C-alpha cells in the first residue's frame, strides 16, 4: 500500500499495517527530520524491520540528498533476514512504480551485506579452513597489494586468488549489478561469475545505498577504521536488536591476555627480529625507506588509504595522534623489536603473581615505567608501528602473529585511556583451583567510550529493539540525548500470547534458580515436571531457556538420572544446545524439521547463549517458551563487580537496579522470540519465584507486562497448566471478529487516524490561541471538561 | 514352490503340525493337510517374543503389523531339538523384522488384512453386493503429509466386507452413543445395517485413516535398566526387540556381535560380558555411570571397541554440511574477530564435561528418530527439495497483513446479463415514477400538523387506569414465578423416563435423517457407497415415513408413563401428594416441551411427504 506521512510518500509492502508500525514510522521520520538520535522499543514480531526499512527507503528515494543507511544487526541470521526483507521491499517498490523513470530509479537502488572472509570465501582451499583468522591470513597472502603486483608482473611466480584477480578486471563501481543482494545471493553470484564475493562487497561499499553488517563493524575501532571510514557524516545509522549494545561496546575495547598468548607473542617477536636481520642483508633500503616515512609522520605513512589488506589498525585514532610523528625510540625496526620484547617480558613477570590484582591503567603505567623504563608515549604508538613494520617486511601467514597483535593493541589501549578501564589479574580460574592459569583482563567499564565516535560522527542514530525497557537506561549508559524516545504497546483483538509466572511446583515448594536452592532436588524436580507437563499439552515446538550453561548442563544430567527426560521423550524429541556452534546449528535444523513434521520437539538452550540471539521461534517452531529461573549474571565475577562499581560511581545506577534490568532484558528477549505477526500465538512461562515481584516485572517491556494479569503472576504448576490449556483451546478457534480497524489498519484507517490527528493539532492550536485571548490565568473550558469530578 | 529355509514341528492352537519358513512366508500346516492354515508374509511380521530359556514349553510368538495378538507356536520336538529349532526361527525372523523396520517405505500393501486363512472367513471374491469403489484420493488429500508418507493405500470402506465389518465394529465400540443407537435400531431390525451407515461413511474413513497411520518409533532412549535381584546380582532381561534396538542405536555393539558371537563367545556370554563392560557404561552416558564404575570390569574383547568420550568442546565427528543462513550460528561466531573478556565460568559452555556426551547423544538420538520417519537424505538435497515450498520470503512474511479479500472471487456468470440489468433499471424507473406521483409532501405535512394539534392538552388529559396497571403487574409477577418454578423443577424427570425420552428422540432423529437423505439428491462431493436408485429411495422414504408416523404415538406413550410414574411416586408418599400432583402437571408440560421440537420436525416431514406424494 502507499500512503503519506506529512508529505513523504511511503510504500509499504503489505495490504494492511499494524497501528504500532504506523506510529513507529511516524516517530522515525520525526527523528530523521530533526537529525537527532532516538530510542524506540517496538513489540517483537510486529514487523519492526520491515517498517524501518520501508520508511528509510522511502525517505532516501524522496529526498534528493540521498543519505546512506548503515544498518547494524547482531548476528548473521539477522543480517540475512534484514537483507531478505529489503530485497522483497525493493521488488514491491519496483512493481508499484508508475513511470519508467521511477522504475529505473528503484531498480538502481543498491543494498549489500558484509560479513567476514570466512563466511564469504569461495576459494576451494582457503574456504575449507576452520578458523576465521586462518582464512583471513591465507586470503591476505593471496590478495595483498605487494603479492598481486609481483604475480601480475611475473605470472606463476606466486600463488594468487583467481576470484580476486577476476574482480580486478572489472570496472570499479560495477562489480555487481545494481539491486539488493543477500549474503547467499552474493555467494551464488561469485560462484557463477568467478569473482570474489568478499571483495565485491568491500569495494562496492562506497556505491551502495544501504549496507547491512554487524555492530562490531561500526563499534569495534579495530574493524571500524578499516571498514567504515568512508561513510559520510550524514548517513543514517540504525542499531537493530540493540538491547545488548552496551555489552558489544564494552567487548570491543576489552582484551584478555593469557600465558600461552604471551609465549606465542614472544616467539613472534623473535621471528620479527630474524626477519629484520635477513632484510638488512638483502634489502636494507626498504628499512631506510620506512624510517624516513615514520619521521615524516603517521599521516604520510598511511596515505594509501583504501587499504584492504591492513593486518590491524590502531584501535583508536584521535585526529591529533595521526599528525604526530612516531616517537624516535621505536622508529628503527630493531629498536621496536627490542621494545616489544621488553614489554612482553614485563607482562610475563606480572603473570607470576599468585594473588588477585586490580589496578587502574595509570598505576599500571607507573609500575611499568619504574621497572622497564618504558614510557607512555611510545606505548601508545605500538599498534600503529607494528602495522607499518608488518607491511614493510611483507610477512606471510599473519594468523601466527595474532597474539603479538593483541599485545600491541593492549599496549595502545592501556596507554590511551585513563578512565573507564581496569586491569584485573586473576591467577586462578576458580576460587578453589590450585593450579595457576593466570589471565590478565584489561576490561572496559564504560560502554559510552566505544560508541562515542559514532554519535559524534553521524547525525541520526536509531537504537531500536523489541526489548529495551527501561528506555531511559540506554541514554544514561551510552551518554547521549535522544530527540525521540518511545515504546509502543501491542494492540491485539484477542490475547495472542499468555505470559504466566510459576512460583511454585504442584507440591507448593517454591522454585527458583537462586544459587543456594537451584540444585535442591525438589526444585530440580519441579522444574522437570513443568517441562514434562508442557511437553504433554503443547503442540509442536517448545523452547526452554536456562540462566547459564553451567546450570543447563548439570540439570540435563540430573533430569536424565531422575527419569524426567524419559517422560519427555514419550511426547517429544529433545535437542540441546552444545558448546560447538555448528553442532548446535545442525540440532536447530533438526528441531525445526521435527516441528514441521508434527513430531514436536523440545529445545534446551541458554539465555544470552548462542541460540537466544538471532534465532526466531515463530509459529510452530515455538508454541511455548519456558524460562527456568531468572537469567542473572554471575555476580561473583570480578569483571562484573568492577563494572557495577563504575556504573554506580559514574552514572548513579545502583548495582541491584542494573542486575535486575540486565536479567529482565535477557528474559524478555528469549520470550519475545516466539511471536511473528498477530495471528501467531504462544505461551510464555516464567518459572521462578522472583518473577512474581513487582519490581522485576516492571522491568519487562510494556507490551509483555500489560498482559500479565494479577492471577497469572503467582501460580503453581497445576494452576498454570489449567490456564494454559484453556488458553490453547480458545486461541485455536478461528478468530471470528475482524481485526481490521483495531489491530490491523487499512489505508482508510490510516487516513482516518491522520485526519483525527490533524483535528487534534488544530484544536490544540486553537486552545492555545484561546488562552492567549483571555490570558487571565483562570481555568479554561477544556480543563473544566477534562476535570474528573467526584460526584 | 519357494524353497524352504527351515522347518520344525510345532503346534498352533493346540493342533499339532509343521511350521515352515520359506523365502517369502512363514506358514503352518496342520498335520495331514496340504494347504497352510496360517500364512504370514514377511512384511507383516512386526515383533517377536520367545519363552524363557529352560521353560517347560518352548514357544515363539509372532506379532503382526496392526495386530499385536499375532500367532503363538509351541515347538513340539524333544526339548533340546526344539530349542535349537526355535533359535533358528528366531534368528531368521529377527532379521526379517529388523528389515521391515528399517525400510519403512516398503511396507505391506494391505497389512490389516486378516492373515489366517480359515474356512470360516468368506473369501474376498464373493462379496455380497458389487459396490462402486471410490478412489482413495479424497481420503488421502485431507491427511497430513506425515500420514501419507507410508505409501500404503488406505482401505476404502465398502470395498471389502470383512474389513468393513471390523471397521464398523471399531467405530461402534469407540463411540458408545452411536453403539446404543445401532443396538436400538439395527439389531431390533428397524433399519438395515447399510441404511444405518449411509451418510456416516466419514466415520469409517476416519477410522481407516487412523489405522493406516504409521506409528512413529517411540522416542525413549535405549537404556536397559538392570533390576537388582536377591543376593546382589543384577539382572537384565534381553528380548529380541531390545537386541535389535541396541544394535541400531550403537552400531559398534552390532559390530562386536558380528565379530565375536559364533566363534569366540556364545550369545549369552556376549550379552553378559557386554553389560559388565565399560562399553555398556559408556553407552548409558549418564552421570550415575561414574558411580557404578567399580562394578565395571576390564574386558579384553569389549575394551577394544571403546571409543574416547565425546566430551571435547568440539564434537568428535565434525559434520561439514551447508547450513541455512537463517539458523547458522557458526557464521555469527566467525563474523568478526574475537573481542572482549572471556565469559565468566557459569557462561562457558561445556564445563560440565560429563554432560557433553549425554547432550550429544540426545541430539543424535533425536536426529535418528527423525530420519527414521522422514528418510535421511543429505541436508543439501533436502533443502533443494524443500526450497520449492518454503523460500526465504515465507520465513519473514507477516501473513495477517495481507488483504484476505484480495483473492479473486468466483465471477457470477449470467445469461443475458445486459437485458437483466436493463430490465431492472426499467422497472425501478417506473416504480420511482409511480412513487413520485403518489407522494404529495405538502398534504402529508398538513395532515401531520392537524394530528399534532393540541398535543399538550391531550397529554395533560391522559389518565392511566390504576386497576389495569395493577393487573398487568400481577400477571407479570405470576408469569415470572411460574417460570422460576418450572426452571427449578425441570430436572426432576425420573431417570428412567429421561433415558426413554432420549432414546425416543435419537431414534426419531435417525429416522428423520434417513428420510431427508432419501428425499434430497446426494450432495455432489458427498461420498456415497452405492447411489440408491430412485425406486429404492422412494421405498425407503415410505418406510421412514411409516416410522415417523408412529413417533406421535410413542411420545404420547411416554407422556402417559410419565403421568403414571408420577402418580406412583405420589402414592408412595401420600404426605407430599399435593406437591407431586403439581409435579405431574409440570412434568407433563416439560415432557411436551422437550419433545416439541422433534414432533414439529416429524410433522414437517410428514407434511412434506404428503405434499410430495401426488406428483410422483
The number of distinct helices of chain A, counting runs of at least 4 residues, comes to 35
Structural class of chain A: alpha/beta
Low confidence ranges of chain B: 104-155, 524-530, 570-584
Please tell me the overall pLDDT of chain B. 71
Main sheet overview of chain B: 7 strands, antiparallel
Category from helices, strands and their pairing of chain B: alpha+beta
Name the beta content range of chain B: 5-15%
| Terminal residue distance of chain A | 49 Å
Estimate the helix proportion of chain B, in percent: 40-55%
Strand tally of chain A? 20
Strand numbers in spatial order across the main sheet of chain B: 4-3-2-1-7-6-5
Total domains of chain A, how many?
4
CA-based shape of chain A? globular
Overall residue-averaged pLDDT value of chain A: 88
Q: List the quaternary state of the chains.
A: heterodimer
How many helices of chain B does DSSP assign?
Answer: 23
Which regions of chain A have little confidence, pLDDT < 50, spanning 5+ residues?
Answer: 300-307
Keywords (chain B): Nucleus, Repeat, Transcription, Transcription regulation
Pfam families (chain B): BSD, PH_TFIIH
Protein name (chain B): BSD domain-containing protein
Main location (chain B): nucleus
Amino acid at each position: 500500500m502507499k500512503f503519506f506521512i506529512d508529505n513523504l510518500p511511503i510504500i509499504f509492502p503489505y495490504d494492511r499495517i499494524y497501528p504500532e508500525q504506523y506510529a513507529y514510522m511516524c516517530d522515525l521520520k520525526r527523528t530523521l527530520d530533526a537529525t537527532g538520535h532516538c530510542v524506540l522499543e517496538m513489540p517483537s514480531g510486529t514487523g519492526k524491520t520491515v517498517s524501518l526499512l520501508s520508511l528509510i527507503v522511502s525517505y532516501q528515494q524522496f529526498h534528493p540528498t540521498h543519505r546512506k543507511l548503515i544498518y547494524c544487526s547482531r548476528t548473521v541470521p539477522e543480517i540475512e533476514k534484514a537483507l531478505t526483507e529489503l530485497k522483497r521491499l525493493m521488488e514491491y517498490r519496483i512493481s508499484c512504480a508508475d513511470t519508467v523513470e521511477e522504475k529505473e530509479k528503484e531498480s538502481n537502488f543498491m543494498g549489500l551485506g558484509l560479513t567476514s572472509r570466512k563466511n564469504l570465501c569461495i576459494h576451494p582451499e582457503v574456504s575449507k579452513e576452520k578458523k576465521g583468522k586462518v582464512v583471513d591470513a591465507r586470503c591476505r597472502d593471496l590478495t595483498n597489494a605487494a603479492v598481486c603486483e609481483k604475480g601480475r608482473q611475473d605470472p606463476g611466480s606466486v600463488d594468487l586468488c583467481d576470484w580476486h584477480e577476476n574482480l580486478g578486471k572489472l570496472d570499479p563501481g560495477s562489480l555487481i549489478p545494481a539491486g539488493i543482494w543477500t549474503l547467499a545471493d552474493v555467494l551464488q553470484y561469485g560462484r557463477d561469475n568467478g569473482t570474489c564475493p568478499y571483495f565485491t562487497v568491500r569495494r562496492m561499499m562506497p556505491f551502495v545505498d544501504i549496507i547491512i553488517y554487524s555492530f562490531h563493524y561500526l563499534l569495534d575501532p579495530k574493524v571500524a577504521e578499516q571498514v567504515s571510514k568512508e561513510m559520510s557524516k550524514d548517513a543514517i545509522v540504525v542499531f537493530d536488536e540493540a538491547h545488548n549494545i552496551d555489552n558489544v561496546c564494552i567487548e570491543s575495547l576489552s582484551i584478555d591476555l593469557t600465558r600461552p598468548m604471551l609465549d606465542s607473542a614472544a616467539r613472534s617477536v623473535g621471528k620479527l627480529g630474524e626477519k629484520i636481520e635477513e632484510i638488512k642483508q638483502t634489502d636494507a633500503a626498504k628499512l631506510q625507506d620506512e624510517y624516513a616515512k615514520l619521521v615524516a609522520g603517521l599521516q604520510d605513512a598511511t596515505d594509501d588509504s583504501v587499504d584492504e589488506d591492513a593486518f590491524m589498525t590502531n584501535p583508536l585514532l584521535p585526529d591529533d595522534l595521526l599528525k604526530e610523528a612516531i616517537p624516535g625510540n621505536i622508529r628503527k625496526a630493531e629498536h621496536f623489536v627490542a621494545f616489544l620484547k621488553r614489554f612482553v617480558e614485563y607482562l610475563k613477570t606480572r603473570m607470576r603473581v599468585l594473588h588477585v590484582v586490580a589496578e587502574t591503567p595509570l598505576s599500571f603505567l607507573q609500575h611499568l615505567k619504574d621497572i622497564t623504563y618504558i614510557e607512555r608515549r611510545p606505548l601508545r604508538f605500538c599498534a600503529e608501528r607494528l602495522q607499518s613494520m608488518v607491511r614493510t617486511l611483507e610477512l606471510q601467514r599473519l594468523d601466527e602473529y595474532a597474539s603479538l597483535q593483541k599485545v600491541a593493541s593492549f599496549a595502545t589501549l592501556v596507554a590511551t585511556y585513563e578512565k573507564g578501564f581496569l586491569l584485573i589479574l586473576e591467577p586462578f580460574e576458580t576460587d578453589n583451583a590450585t593450579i595457576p592459569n593466570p589471565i590478565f583482563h584489561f576490561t572496559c567499564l564504560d560502554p559510552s567510550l566505544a560508541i562515542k565516535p559514532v554519535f559524534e560522527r553521524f547525525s541520526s542514530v536509531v537504537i531500536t529493539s523489541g526489548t529495551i525497557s527501561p528506555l531511559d537506561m540506554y541514554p544514561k549508559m551510552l551518554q547521549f540525548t535522544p530527540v525521540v524516545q518511545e515504546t509502543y504497546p501491542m494492540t491485539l483483538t484477542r490475547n495472542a500470547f499468555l505470559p504466566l509466572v510459576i512460583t511454585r511446583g504442584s507440591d507448593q515448594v517454591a522454585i527458583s534458580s537462586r544459587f543456594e536452592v537451584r540444585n535442591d532436588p525438589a526444585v530440580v524436580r519441579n522444574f522437570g515436571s513443568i517441562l514434562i507437563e508442557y511437553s504433554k499439552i503443547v503442540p509442536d515446538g517448545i523452547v526452554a531457556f536456562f540462566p547459564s550453561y553451567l546450570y543447563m548442563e548439570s540439570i540435563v544430567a540430573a533430569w536424565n538420572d531422575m527419569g524426567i527426560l524419559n517422560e519427555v521423550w514419550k511426547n517429544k524429541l529433545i535437542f540441546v544446545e552444545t558448546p560447538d556452534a555448528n553442532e548446535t546449528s545442525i540440532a536447530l535444523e533438526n528441531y525445526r524439521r521435527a516441528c514441521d513434521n508434527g513430531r514436536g520437539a523440545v529445545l534446551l538452550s541458554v539465555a544470552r547463549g548462542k541460540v537466544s540471539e538471532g534465532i526466531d521461534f515463530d509459529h510452530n517452531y515455538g508454541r511455548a517458551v519456558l524460562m527456568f529461573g531468572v537469567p542473572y549474571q554471575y555476580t561473583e565475577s570480578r569483571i562484573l563487580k568492577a563494572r557495577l562499581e563504575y556504573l554506580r560511581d559514574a552514572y548513579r545506577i545502583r548495582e541491584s537496579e542494573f542486575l535486575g534490568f540486565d536479567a529482565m532484558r535477557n528474559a524478555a528477549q528469549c520470550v519475545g522470540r516466539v511471536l511473528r505477526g498477530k495471528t501467531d500465538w504462544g505461551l510464555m512461562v516464567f518459572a521462578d519465584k522472583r518473577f512474581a515481584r513487582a519490581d522485576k516485572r516492571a522491568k519487562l517491556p510494556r507490551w509483555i507486562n500489560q498482559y500479565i494479569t494479577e492471577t497469572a503472576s503467582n501460580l503453581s504448576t497445576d494452576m498454570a497448566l489449567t490456564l494454559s490449556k484453556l488458553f490453547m483451546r480458545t486461541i485455536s478457534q478461528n478468530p471470528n471478529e475482524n481485526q481490521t480497524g483495531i489491530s490491523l489498519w487499512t489505508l482508510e484507517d490510516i487516513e482516518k487516524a491522520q485526519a483525527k490527528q490533524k483535528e487534534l493539532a488544530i484544536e490544540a492550536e486553537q486552545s492555545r490561541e484561546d488562552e492567549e485571548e483571555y490570558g487571565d490565568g483562570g481555568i479554561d473550558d477544556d480543563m473544566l471538561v477534562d476535570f474528573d469530578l467526584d460526584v | 514352490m519357494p524353497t524352504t529355509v527351515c522347518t520344525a514341528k510345532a503346534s498352533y492352537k493346540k493342533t499339532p503340525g509343521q511350521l515352515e519358513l520359506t523365502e517369502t512366508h512363514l506358514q503352518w500346516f496342520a498335520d495331514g493337510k496340504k494347504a497352510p492354515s496360517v500364512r504370514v508374509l514377511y512384511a507383516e511380521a512386526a515383533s517377536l517374543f520367545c519363552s524363557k530359556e529352560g521353560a517347560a514349553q518352548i514357544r515363539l510368538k509372532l506379532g503382526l503389523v496392526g495386530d499385536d495378538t499375532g500367532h503363538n507356536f509351541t515347538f513340539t520336538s524333544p526339548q533340546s531339538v526344539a530349542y535349537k529349532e526355535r533359535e533358528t526361527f528366531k534368528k531368521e525372523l529377527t532379521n526379517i523384522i529388523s528389515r521391515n523396520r528399517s525400510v519403512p517405505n516398503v511396507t505391506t500393501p494391505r497389512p490389516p488384512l486378516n492373515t489366517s486363512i480359515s474356512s470360516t472367513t468368506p473369501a474376498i471374491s464373493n462379496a455380497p453386493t458389487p459396490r462402486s469403489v471410490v478412489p482413495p484420493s479424497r481420503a488421502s488429500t485431507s491427511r497430513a503429509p506425515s500420514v501419507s508418507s507410508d505409501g500404503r493405500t488406505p482401505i476404502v470402506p465398502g470395498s471389502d466386507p470383512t474389513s468393513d465389518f471390523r471397521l464398523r465394529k471399531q467405530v461402534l465400540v469407540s463411540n458408545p452413543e452411536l453403539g446404543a443407537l445401532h443396538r436400538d435400531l439395527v439389531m431390533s431390525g428397524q433399519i438395515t445395517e447399510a441404511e444405518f451407515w449411509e451418510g456416516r461413511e466419514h466415520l469409517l474413513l476416519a477410522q481407516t485413516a487412523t489405522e493406516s497411520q504409521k506409528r512413529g518409533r517411540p522416542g525413549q532412549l535405549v537404556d536397559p535398566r538392570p533390576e537388582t535381584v536377591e543376593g546382589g546380582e543384577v539382572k537384565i532381561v534381553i528380548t529380541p526387540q531390545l537386541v535389535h534396538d541396541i544394535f541400531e542405536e550403537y552400531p559398534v555393539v552390532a559390530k562386536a556381535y558380528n565379530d565375536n558371537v559364533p566363534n569366540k563367545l556364545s550369545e549369552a556370554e556376549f550379552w553378559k560380558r557386554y553389560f559388565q563392560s565399560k562399553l555398556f557404561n559408556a553407552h548409558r552416558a549418564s552421570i550415575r555411570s561414574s558411580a557404578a564404575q567399580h562394578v565395571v570390569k576390564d574386558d579384553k574383547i569389549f575394551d577394544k571397541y571403546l571409543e574416547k568420550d565425546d566430551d571435547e568442546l568440539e564434537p568428535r565427528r565434525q559434520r561439514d554440511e551447508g547450513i541455512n543462513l537463517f539458523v547458522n550460528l557458526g557464521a555469527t561466531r566467525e563474523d568478526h574477530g574475537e573481542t572482549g573478556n572471556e565469559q565468566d565460568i557459569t557462561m562457558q559452555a561445556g564445563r560440565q564435561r560429563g554432560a557433553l556426551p549425554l547432550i550429544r547423544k540426545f541430539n543424535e538420538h533425536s536426529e535418528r528418530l527423525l530420519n527414521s520417519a522422514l528418510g535421511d537424505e543429505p541436508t543439501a538435497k533436502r533443502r533443494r527439495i524443500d526450497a520449492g515450498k518454503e523460500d526465504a520470503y515465507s520465513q519473514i512474511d507477516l501473513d495477517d497483513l495481507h488483504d484476505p479479500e484480495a483473492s479473486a472471487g468466483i465471477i457470477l456468470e449470467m445469461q443475458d446479463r445486459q437485458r437483466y440489468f436493463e430490465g431492472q433499471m426499467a422497472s425501478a424507473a417506473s416504480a420511482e415514477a409511480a412513487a413520485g406521483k403518489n407522494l404529495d409532501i405538502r398534504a402529508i405535512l398538513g395532515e401531520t400538523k392537524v394530528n399534532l394539534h393540541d398535543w399538550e392538552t391531550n397529554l395533560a388529559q391522559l389518565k392511566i387506569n390504576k386497576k389495569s396497571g395493577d393487573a398487568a403487574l400481577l400477571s407479570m409477577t405470576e408469569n415470572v414465578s411460574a417460570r422460576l418454578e418450572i426452571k427449578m423443577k425441570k430436572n426432576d424427570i425420573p431417570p428412567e423416563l429421561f433415558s426413554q425420552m432420549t432414546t425416543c428422540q435419537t431414534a426419531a432423529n435417525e429416522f428423520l435423517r434417513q428420510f431427508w437423505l432419501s428425499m434430497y439428491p446426494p450432495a455432489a462431493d458427498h461420498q456415497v457407497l452405492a447411489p440408491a436408485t430412485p425406486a429404492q429411495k422412494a421405498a425407503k422414504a415410505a418406510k421412514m415415513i411409516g416410522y415417523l408416523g408412529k413417533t406421535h404415538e410413542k411420545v404420547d406413550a411416554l407422556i402417559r408413563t410419565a403421568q403414571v410414574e408420577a402418580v406412583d411416586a405420589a402414592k408412595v408418599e401420600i404426605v407430599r401428594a399435593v406437591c407431586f400432583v403439581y409435579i405431574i402437571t409440570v412434568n407433563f408440560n416439560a415432557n411436551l416441551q422437550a419433545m416439541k421440537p422433534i414432533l414439529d420436525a416429524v410433522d414437517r416431514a410428514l407434511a412434506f411427504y404428503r405434499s410430495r406424494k401426488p406428483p410422483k
